[in-house]
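re: that chain from earlier
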Amino acid sequence: MNKHDKDQPLYLISIVCEMLNVHPQTLRMYEKEGLISPRRTNRQRLYSDSDVERLNLILQLTRELGVNKAGVDIILRMRHKLEVLQREMEEIMEFLANDVKRDLRNRLRKELEEEE
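^ sequence. v structure.
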């Protein structure tokens, strides 16, 4: 499943509540506090797989680790920043790898030309 598919809104609030064993009011509270942003169509909340994963993380942090909502917000923001940095680092590494390959090819080409 690619990133786009994971962001596709699929689930009604009642389904997500069953999936995560949580009361609908809890999800509404998380939305009100800005921890989650389900899509809305005709006044219905629709949650994507990404939303469900995020909610699962929020519930693990609060239920299992006792993190309060302010802590959850900080953790989610830090996690997002880390993901952005990871993507940037991967792009930089790919650029450097391509640059090294290009340089190596040019050097080999020059050496072959010098031998001829």
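The longest helix spans residues 69-115.
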